[in-house]
Amino acid sequence: MAARFVRLRIGGFKSFADPVSVDILPGLTGIVGPNGCGKSNVVEALRWAMGESSARSLRGGEMDDLIFAGTTARSARNLAEVTLTLEGTEGIAAPPLHDQDELQITRRAERGAGSDYRVNGKQIRARDVQTLFADLASGARSSAMVSQGRVSALVNARPEERRSILEEAAGITGLHARRHEAELKLRATEANLARADDLRIQLEGHLGNLRDQSQQARRYREISTALRESETTLLALLHARARLAVERAGQTARQTRQALTQAEDAAETSVIAEFEANRDLPALRARTDESRTLLERQKILAEGMAREEQRATEAAQAATERLRQAESDHQAALARETDAGESVARLQAEQSGLSARLSALPDDMAQAAQTQTDAAGMVQIREQALEQASTEATAAQARATQVAAALTDAQARHARLEAQHAALAAELEDLRATLPASSALEAQAAELAAATTRLAESRAALEQAAQEQSDATLAAGLARGQADEARRRHDEARRALAQATERAAGLRGEQQGLQRRHDEAHAQLVAAERRDALRAGLADAQSTLDAARAALEQAELDRQAASAARIDAYARLQEGTNRRTTTNAALQSADTAHQRAVARLRALAEDLARAQAAAIAPERLTAARTAREDAERQLADAGNALEGAEAALATAATDRDAATQRLSDLKADLSRLAAQAEGLTQALKTGQEETDFRPVVDDITVPDGLEAALAAALTDGLDASVAQDAPRLWHALPSLDAAPLPGTGTVALATLVSAPPALARALAAIGLLDDGADGAALQATLLPGQSLVGRDGALWRWDGYRVAAGQPSRAALLLQQRNHLRETEAARQTRLADLPIAESTLAAAEQARAMAAESVGTARAARAAIEATLRQARTDEAEISRLDATARARLETVQPQHDQAMQTLAEAEAALSAARQAAADLPDATQLAQRHEAARQQEQAAQTAETTAREARKRAETALEAARREDEATAARHGEAESRLATIIPELQRIAREAEQAETGRQEAEATLAALPPAADTDSALATAEARARDAATAQETARQALQDAERALEQAQTAHAAQQATLIETRSVLDAQAPRLEALRQERDDAADLLARVKAEHQALPDQEAIAALVHEAREALALARQAEDEARQHRATLAGEEQTSQARLTGVVAALADWTSRQAAATTELQGAAARLDATKSEHARLASMPDEVIRSRETAREAMDKAESGHAEAARKLAEAEDALVRAQTARRDAEAALAAGREAVLRAEGRHEQAEAILAQLLAETPEPPGIVPPDLTEAAETSLRRKIARLIREREEMGPVNLRAELEADEAETRITTIQREKEELDSAIARLRGSIGALNREGRERLLAVFTEVDRHFQSLFARMFNGGRAHLGMVGNDDPLQAGLEIYAQPPGKKLATLSLLSGGEQALTALSLIFAVFRCNPAPICVLDEVDAPLDDANVGRFCALLADMVAEAGTRFLVVTHHQLTMAHMDRLYGVTMQERGVSRVLSVDLDHAASMVGQPRAEAAH
Fold it and tell me: Which residue ranges have biased composition labelled Low complexity (predicted)?
């Protein structure tokens, strides 16, 4: 036995919380312990590692129950792992592990994540592990895992279940699994093949229809593509025209808005410039006054001795200055008055122009309205003309369609009847020619009698041949059995010899390998002196390391202390230096800050006083802001009112357009319905005969779908009348008792059709069949006068007359036309009733649109007036706010600065005092530097000592690690060698014993083979018997073939005779039945020819359709031109209305601006008069002061040096003031120009936005109705292009509708069907080959299984008989295959006869006898196919001491024979005494199992007692 189980390691499995190892050594290993301590958990761990997949068979609910669940003292584990170690596995496992001599099979389960298998660390499938153990005759459920339950199951099992024992012994357990898998694949493949054939047949039948549909679908797609392209082009044309109008209007609006933006920017710039100019003037004037005051002060200082002369000079200078200022003010007032006058003149001219335009606009609008009215009248005239032409064309087309349909039906009916007549005549001639002759009938009867005689003779011959073949087969079977038995005995002897030779060779090789491993392990042992030396060196290295670590710790402490001292000294030095530098800088900064604070406080006090004097009163600012907010609210209200009015105008325009469209659609529907009704009326009149009597069909009301049924039932009776003097009439007769109509669901037409009373009797006798009912089957049950009709026009009359469904019927066509005419008249009356409502709706919508337009004009004028008021209010507020902001900003800036300056002064004084005190408190810098240098030297010395100690510790650690590694490696090598020696020595001894036994067995096998008789005699007898059996089988097959030929001949004769008789009868019946039908077809053919001639004459008399279509086309083009003219007139009128509103709004704005500029002109005139008066007064004063004495000149020359500087400053200030005043004048002029441009820009924007909104409304309506096609730009945007596209679309729609329903996916479905058929055919071929391979595989597996099962049955039976006699100390027993001739299906029955009892089956024995018998069978299987390991779980429980002794002796013999390693779980003391070693399973800690081991041989040697005596 090559493979060996050597070790089982358990961790986290069930009660084994801690990892434990169980060495599976050669011999008997016992597992003992009290109940509930976990003994069976060891066995279940072994089964789980072998591939057990059922948690219930392991006493668990699920796989997570196999993981240690924890106790009160221990927490649960999340991982369970069991490792099984095998040796000698080279060549056993599947690749890539086939070359491994040792396998470690590990199964690991993680809580909530399932389990996996690993072999030598590589993951593997569970099936591969199970197959590996099955090939080793072991496994989780093999016969090698024996328990009390297993023994009881074997005893109580049915014979079919016991067969698994033999299958395991034969090693075909895996064979069964592979065969079952192959059978499942075979059944699935056959099912797939059947489904593939069904699907292929279905697809082939469907493919023909799909090809026809695909041609129709291609034509439908071509028409749809052309239609879609035409519709898209038309839609793109409409969108392009609308967008072109929007783009043009939008471009104009953008240009006007851009101009308006520029005007607004210019106005804002001019206002800002004027504001800045006004803002700078007061400051410049103040500086001028200051310079003047300074100049006067210098003059006073220079003229100390001549104050009167100084005052005169000062007065002259002041007069001159005032004169210059007065002249400047006069020039500015004059410029403002001139600008105001120009603006007033310009506005007055614009007002006159607007008034003239507004006066002329009513005439233009009246003319535009008249033009629009004329265009609308022309549109109505053209619409009436088009409507009349369309009506005539529709009627003519309907008449032509009707005549064409009648012509087509007549031609088809005539051709069909002609073909039917010819076909029926030819068919009757053929039938007469096929009638058989009487001589042929007599010959067939004679041939039938002869075939019957030959069949009886062939049956007798076959029975004789079958009897002879049965006798020969029986003889051959007996001979074959004798030959098989002889060959089996020879084969068994050869196999036993081969096995013994192979076993002896294998044991010798295994003995050599073990000896080599023993020498290697012995060489790996380490001497005790070497181990002691290593331990001493390790202790010395540890002591050295401890001393180095202590020295390093002390050095680190010293270095840390020195570093702390150095850092403290350096920090004190740095702190002193920094404090000195900071204190000096702070002292200097505090002095400078104090000086700056004093100067700043003095200047800010003066600025604060000036800012408080320039503040603005809050009431003035509040009043300006209130006025501006009121104006903004009014403007917002006016804007909302304007938006509401414009929205109402848009809504009214939309409603007006919708009402117009509805009225147009209604009129078009009326025209279409009138033309349709007229065409139907003319068609009905054309088909009726000229008579003065009303036909009854006019008084009949037929539901939809029953026209064909009623026409088939009454035919020509529909043209008759109920008038008493009519040549064809219906008499009103009393009603008869209604006889029931045949058929389920048959309804009389009298209940469905409304007709005059004269037709009541006829309609009551006509029944309407349900859809799908067969009238031919019910025709024979009709009573006289009754008829049955179908909705498709089929007729069955009581006298045998029948009309097929779908026949052309003029009466049915007339009935359908009359129903259509009634529906058309009803729809026309509904449209006529809706016409006045639509007209009144259009008038109301037009009136609402006019009112909304007037409201928009009023709202725009109000908004313009409010905008002017708002602009003035904003200007006033801005001016006041600017002044107030300037004053407040100055005050708010100066006041905090003044307060801050006072606080800064106080802080500067305090900081100056503190800086002086800090400078006095600074420490000595020399002492701090000396302390730092001493601390640095101490730190360097400590660092050097620490480095030395660290290097010493590192050397000690290196030495310790090397010593520890060497000691651990030596101890591991020595322990591994000892463990391997302890395992190898017993195994080597066992192999030596087994090798001697194997050599003895080989010699015995050679002697047995030599003693067997030769098999040549049995082979010759078998050949003779088989030859006779083959001859008998050949004769039987010849007789069977003759019988089959006779049967086929008789069957052919019978078939030919029956077919000839049936043909004769059928032909005669057909001839008798078809003769009247031929005459009827001839009559119908003649009638169809007459009808065809009449319809052709009527078709030639139809009017020319192309001329009528040309008239309709001309009328439609004239209508399009009229509508275009009407649209242009309406657009011109809307433009004039917009211009009127715009001009009115502009006039209102001009009036407001004129009033504003008039008031400005008056103010400028008043200002100019005041400036002129001031100028005159200043000139008089200047003239008076200029005549002062010449002392002023002498005084000026005396103080010239002091006055030059003051004069230059004053001149500079005066120059700047003059420049600022000039800038103010220019800014005011620019502001006036910008405001005029802004007003003009706003008017232009209003006009452009009106046009743009109109164009956008048209485009939005178009977009709301239809989306714009992407990527299409029509080259032609004319009306003619649109008309051409519409005609093309109508033609394509008509062609597509005439095609009827179309399957658009037919082509794709056909391609898919062809692809699937090809794929299915290819897959069918693959499935056929796969089925053949699977059947061959299953047959091979069955043959191999039978051969191996029969071979092992004999061997197991022999071992069972021997073991039974040994276990019972006598008696006899044997095994039998029962229930089926096939060994793979037969059951295994056990027959036993204990000493002193009769032969009986296993179920009739006592409990102990059953257990011993079952164990005998199990051990017999072991002897046949020994397993590497066997587990016996308390199987000795039902045995007494004597039987336990025999049982243990048998185990010892099996260990010696096969080398099987036994794990025996037992409570029996005698069994324990026979074990080689014991493992005790204890549970010292509740819920946690532990394992203790005892080697009984070693224990016996320790107490000095031989093992054999201890066992007794």
Answer: 937-947, 1006-1015
